Amino acid sequence: MTRVGTLGTSIRVGQKEAQILSEVMNLSLILVCCVDRGPPSVSWLLRGDQKEDPRVHISNCRNNTRQSCSMLVIRKVIANDTGYFTSFYGQLPAQISVPFWSLTSKGAVFQINVLFPADSRNPFVEIHPEHPEIIYILDAKKTVVIPCRVTSPDIKPKDTLLRMVWDPRKGFVIPSHSFVYSGVLTCTANVNGSVFTSYYLGRVQNLALKATPKKLLVGETLYLECKAETFINGRIELIWTYLYCKKSRVDTTQFKDVSTVLWQICHYLSSSSFLFPDKPFITVSHKKGPYYEITSGHKSLKLAAKVDAFPRPSVTWYKDGKLIKDNHTCYEPDPMKYRLGIRDVRPKHAGNYTIVLSNAKYGLYKNLTMQLVVTERPKIYEKETDFDKIERVELRSKHKIQCTVSGNPDPKIEWKWQPCSLTDMLYRLLSSLSAKPTLHSKPLLLLFVWQIVSTLTTENSSASGIYYCVASNKIGEEERSIEFYVSDVPFGLQTDPQVTTIVGNDVRLTCRASKYIYSHLAWYYPSSEAALRDAVIKTTDNYSISLTLVITNITKEQSGLYKCRAQNQHNSTDTLEQHTHQGAEDRVLQKPN
């Protein structure tokens, strides 16, 4: 026996050192795997045809060091022996591949590739010169492999399709979306002038495995159905394999052949694994925690529970102890996913929600409660009706201003003040006022909504300005402004109702209006003609504005009803009018005594 080549490598795995030695003899392959630290022992994973092959022998090898060693010997190696050899140390695999053109290490998988002497008579590991090998394509997301592997990296076969990638360890690799059925596929290799051809036939088919039901109790019957779609006149054969699990069994007598199934093994995938519990059960827990918080106005919210149960239980939902019916306009129960949808979330939806799971047949009942808190930005109700309401307050009087607020969490209410006399000042807290108003707040339940009523009271009103009611919480802020004008003019506009004078005297008719509220004062003669600018005198004091009409050397003809008009500077449609009757009499001469 003549030695052709030797390859060795040493790779560290955590605290363990593994040494894989391989020797290729003229007619035999010897693989040795040694691992430090002693037991557990090293084992080998063989292909199905190698397990009964008399040429394959596994034995423990002696080593003077404290190592676990195992030797795999394959006598009289042939081209078909090309492939992967895997040794195990405990749960760690070490993989060896033949032929040799790379040396790689990936995690706990060690791959050593050993080169056989080129065999010009057998360029392909497996050759199909007469009957095409059928290639089944079951998953459109995976690649299609034409398995014309070669015994030497120098052999580069040709194929009949384009868009292929050559991998000497696999064959030709074709993206599945690029594969189009076109009859027989060929791999051709030219070795020393000799042409070798291997034939393959691609078949695209849809394979599906249906279980009824997927979950069932021990003792119940399971039905499986395997279907496949293939080409016309395709051959039919159905083979079942079963991955055995403890405490479960399958009655294969219930399986029925399906005439449209091509030669194929129907594997049961782990994504569709069966559950055979010993007895029915229900377990439920919070999926996102026991507390939900959402801001009012959201279009939807889903409350969900994490449920593991078999058989599937019936599901009902309760809000604050009251049953939520399936046809409720605000709620959308989803029993399949153990969820409850809430549409157009509002404060009225806040409360405790309970999911009740029941299986009356087996006497199983479980429930779980979760709390929903609906937060809401502050709302000031007076803003909906007052439209920047103006408060006219009599001088030295007591006056109250009110703000009714709701929100969640409860808003904090703060009052601010901006005096008219200081136009360049921004908001100021009420503490800056010399005559401080009093504040009082109390909760109130109106229309099923808790509201806070805050009242500001001025005991001795003397300053004009704007009060601001500011309500805020973590969601947002709302503000209401109240224009607060102190006046010493009753009813906003005032004139003397009757003025009498002597013909020839000068007369002054005065009209007074509340300051900051009314402007554009004007006098009108009895003829309804407006008094000219040079006939009137304007004056302003702390609480009012005045317009005085001066009539010099009055005559009887000037007697009559004079009118004073004032226009609201905040509302152009609001006009006040007051009348003064002016009378002129002749001078009465007194007779001497």
What this model shows, in words?
The chain has about 600 residues and is an all-beta fold. The chain has two helices and 46 strands. The strands form eleven sheets. Strands 23, 25, 26, 29, 30, 32, 35 and 36 form an eight-stranded mixed β-sheet that branches. The protein has a five-stranded antiparallel β-sheet with strand order 1-2-3-6-5, with no helix packed on it. The longest helix is centred in the N-terminal third of the chain and has 4 residues, at about 50. It is elongated and about 155 Å long. The termini are far apart.
Question: Care to give the gist of this entry?
Answer:
Pfam families: I-set, Ig_3, VEGFR-1-like_Ig-like. 1% of the residues lie in helices and 52% in strands.
